[in-house]
Amino acid sequence: MTKKIKLRSLLIGGFFTLLFVVLISKVYWIQVVEASWLLGEAEKKWETDKVLTPVRGSILDRNNKVLAVEATSYTIALNPKMIDGYHIAENVTQGLAEILKESDVTKPTLVNKIRERATKMKPDGTDFAVYTEIRNEGWKIEKEKADQVRTLISELQTKLKLSAKANVGITILEDKKRYYPGETLASHILGYTNKEGEAAIGLELKLDQTLKGVPGMLSYEKDGKGVELPDSKINFKPAQDGNNVRLTIDKNIQFYLESALEKVNDKWHPKSLTAIAVDPQTMEILGMANTPTFNPNTYWTIKDQSDFKNNAVASRYEPGSTFKLVTLAATVEEGLFNPNEMYQSGMIRVEDRELHDHNRVGWGKISFLDGLKRSSNVAFVKLGIEKLTSPKLKDYIKKFGFDQKTNIDMPNEVSGLIDMKYPSEFATATYGQGKVVVTAIQQTAAYAAMANGGKLMWPHIVKDIVDPKTGKSIQSFAPQVVRQVVSEKTANLVTGYLEQVVSDQDIGTGKLAFMEDYRIAGKTGTANLVLPGEKTYSTDSWVISFIGYAPAENPRILVTLIADQPDLGGNYHLGGQVLAPAFKEIVGESLQYMGVASNKQSKMVTKPANKLTVPNFADVTAESAKATAKEIGLSLEVFGKGAKVVDQFPKAGTEILSTQRIYVAMQTVDEMPLPNLVGRSLRDAVETCSFFKVDCQTAGEGYVSDQATTGEGEGRSVTLQLKPLSDKSSTASSSTPTPSPTPASNTKTEAQRSTAKKTP
């Protein structure tokens, strides 16, 4: 018995001794060996690190109108376990589907998707999940839809007899997203950022480093419940918000482009359309548009990725007759172009190849100027090959920059392709087909050189980088001359010849672009397409183009228009009707908006307008402001009620014409409703909208006949309906309108025979 007790005691003692040794070893390991690592892990638990997300910079037009901005958004999350507990899965599914449905998604498809989210199980299948999001339809939605979801939650709370604070399994999470207020407006320029906030395409991607800013950091110590500890160590590095980017784009001109393209698209159904508007003196891009287009707010709805492509810079095409500008300018510069010299039109042989005019038989013996007006291929083969010679032709093509990129500050630009080797290839290059392939922006820069006195300019779309806090420019991008391609004298002569292509209503191929209000210089082009996989040209598919600028005597705007494979019913004679109405609409509205006087008005003016400097009206009474304006010969309009002027347009120190109107506000413009604009000219109406910080869109032409304002505060916008002055209904409710440039006619001419170029 004694032995058993001793053995038991020994075993128990040994066990406790061993346990004690293990504990001592463990303590030693923890306190000595792993002490530093465990301390580090503990500090991680004690400390809270928060990444402070910077605000992405806005993208603005040249007049500081917002094109892209950070905005509050909302994400819908579901708790399937809670939804199942309340037995409301079907109510949630149907209610959210009705709110979140989009035009391109059928409701049954969305219903099934939401039902799957509302009844989602855990990965192991043992129970319902407790969190799931509805992507993409319920991810980063706008406030309007979020408010509708809140209403649905309230209805479910009432149905279940729950308090207003009870959770029914639907959560609305506040977030940030990129918002494009113009929707499709300038979408190919802007691109988009995806829902993760990553820049995807367009200027968003190109300027990502400028726009995205630098994240900050906040770090502090906390207790087990996440509460900050007293005297805790705090590290704070503020986020650096992204800079704003101001573009050369004018939002109104961009709108004119897109509205005109929409009409062309509806009538002629081309595969695609491209439009570029520039200031030819600086090559600042005033507008750039393509169809098909897309809405960057809902980019995920686009099925065909080619819709994202900006054809203005990323596509090449055989230009056709618009390329004749190079041959014309080169021969004028070299003193080889005699407009009155005669030649035999119809056909010319280059080695073993016959090249024809678009009507094949020609017009007999005609002058080279008439050959230009009729867009004769034979005329340009004779000019480019027989007079200029092939080597010099190639030199001028390169001088105009068609063998390299323009280096426009936009992504995905491609270069032209110049690859002539044989005499026949040089011959077809004189009129823009064969081994000469160009981009729309290259063509635009070449025509701008004729409009500005012979200077090839760098095309650019970014005007400056702006500090979002101060609104001051921190980096600007001035116009740059690449090189002088021809003399100013040559450029002026070429402009005169191009003007006759439009003004000659008998034989000019550009006659449908003629405007009574403004002198137009321009050129048409109708290029046959090469059949896919073959080396022959199609007989019923064309690329139609028109490039022109105005006013010819002092160009303020240049517009390039390209239609890829419009539906002409196999009749290329209709080619001249495709783009001419759009050109007239864009140029007419833009010049009027820019305040450029029409030819008609110029003839009526007996005394030229003087240039005056706008005085500073700040903090003066309305009576004093009126007296000052009257004294120096300015027209002043006063808005609002108040003791002294708080704002004015144009700003003090601005140089304006004496015919321009001045606006002053006696109270903050945000506090005042937009005044009645009925009866005003487009220019006066647009200036008033700009002064009141209201986004302005127009429809029609002439003077304001009606207006419709939507939104509040900085989000206000107005749509102006315009009608000609002769339409008495347009001014029935208004006093006599202020004289303004008569806009170009927007009425489409009836189908008539056009001599637009057709190449073999």
From TrEMBL:
Chain segments carrying region Disordered: 704-760
Q: Name one Pfam family in it.
A: PBP_dimer
Provide the protein's localization: Membrane
Q: Read off the SUPFAM superfamilies from this record.
A: beta-lactamase/transpeptidase-like, Penicillin binding protein dimerisation domain, Penicillin-binding protein 2x (pbp-2x), c-terminal domain
Signal peptide (from-to): none
For the PASTA domain, which residue ranges apply?
Answer: 608-666
Chief subcellular location: membrane
Keywords in alphabetical order: Membrane
This protein is called what?
PASTA domain-containing protein
Superkingdom classification of source: Bacteria
Q: Which family does it belong to?
A: Belongs to the transpeptidase family.
The source organism is Paenibacillus germinis
Presence of the UniProt keyword Membrane in the record: yes
Q: Which PANTHER family match?
A: PENICILLIN-BINDING PROTEIN 2B, PEPTIDOGLYCAN D,D-TRANSPEPTIDASE
